[in-house]
Amino acid sequence: MTSTSTDRAAVLELLRERRFAPSILAADFARLGSQVAEVMDAGARVIHCDVMDGHFVPPITIGPLIVSAIAGQVHGAGGILDVHLMIERPENLIAEFARAGADSITVHAEATPHLHYALAAVHAEGCAASAAISPGTPSLAVSEVTDDLDMVLCMSVSPGWGGQEFIPASLRKLARLRDLLPDHVALEVDGGVSLETAAGCVIAGANLLVAGSAIFGAPDPAEMYAKLVAEVEAK
Ligand code: DX5
Ligand code: ZN
Question: What angle do CA 86, 216, 135 make, to 5 degrees?
């Protein structure tokens, strides 16, 4: 966590509230700063950064350089950087992403034989620690580390690409996760979240909803952000 980042209590509060986390994966990288400003002006406070290494998942996306490029802007506007590592052996790069300005770091349970160690490494850097599970991984994969978690990320598509269709069975998995996790552990859902699928995710127990193409693929990302918020408000 860098000097520009947000304090831990504020980070945990933002992760535990019901809100949408725009994923910059679907943003226009030629004007990343203004895309981030658009959604933050609309009320977004959790900016989701998808890191892919070409090994754990086929694509290569962003690294610490891009995270640090937007860190000042996001923190300055009262937001946090939610870094989703889709990389093999994530424990090796945690310190680097923390230095880049990450506030929460998510590691995939499938990407390391040492999940407990990786979560401890995230905490040691002063960041909120989260474990992600892909669609084929049972919810029980996180059951032995609940004491070490601030959040669980439930993938509702296979990791690696934006714009995929929401997997309906994810709703039952979200409910199982919500049952097994202590109340203070946030539950994030990632993949295929849209006006059609968001409410179901909230009803199933998710509180933090990642949305990439739904927001940045819309003609007006700020307007779509507001529509999504309204969609889950009464749930
Ligand atoms: C996929 C990423 C997601 C992605 C979601 O591997 O983890 O965060 O950006 O994109 P949409 O919302 O388009 O499904
Ligand atoms: Zn993600």
Answer: 35
110-153 per-position pLDDT tens digit: 999 999 999 999 999 999 999 999 999 999 999 999 999 999 99
Looking up tokens 């408000």, which residue turns up? 233
- CB of 192 closer than 6 angstroms to any ligand 1 atom: yes
Which domains are assigned to the chain? 8-232 (3.20.20.70)
Q: What is the pLDDT of residues 38-61, one digit of tens each?
A: 999 999 999 999 999 999 999 999
pLDDT attached to residue 64: 98
**Phi, psi dihedral angles at 49 (to 5 degrees):** -115, 120
Q: Say yes or no: CB of residue 198 within 6 Å of ligand 1.
A: no
User: With a 6 A CB cut-off, is 22 part of the ligand 1 pocket?
Assistant: no
Which protein residues have a CB closer than 5 Å to ligand 2 (ion)? 50, 84, 190
Helix-then-strand count for the chain, H and E: 9, 8
Proximal ligand: closest to the CA of 228: 1
Task: Give yes or no: 220 in active site.
Answer: no
